[in-house]
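Need tokens for this chain, all 128 residues.
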Amino acid sequence: VQLVESGGGLVQAGGSLRLSCAASGFTFADHAIGWFRQAPGKEREGVAWIGNSNSRAYYGDSVKGRFTISSDNAKNTVYLQMNSLKPEDTAVYYCAAGLYLAGLWSSVPTREDEYDYWGQGTQVTVSS
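Here are the structure tokens for all 128 residues:
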């Protein structure tokens, strides 16, 4: 199993970045992908989640209206489009995969402990 994040970098406040999470080694459609982030000295927090089979998406309160998560099943890749970035969005962003059987479960998992596979993270820095 492998999850590889890319697309992080340095951007000015108000700018945009698109993160990618390329997945391999598991059945993509039977999983959800979540984006989590961790800023220095802070606990890791959930940002956005998507069910790969039905594209059902959820967002954390701090990013609603600014971030968009999407899934490309043909490429086994999930994207996180981040607009109107703020300095407080600065963090290491991780993608993770957790089992999600859309036909059986009513909602996409959002807790960290529901995600079994994690990427190595990509740094996002937003300057003021």
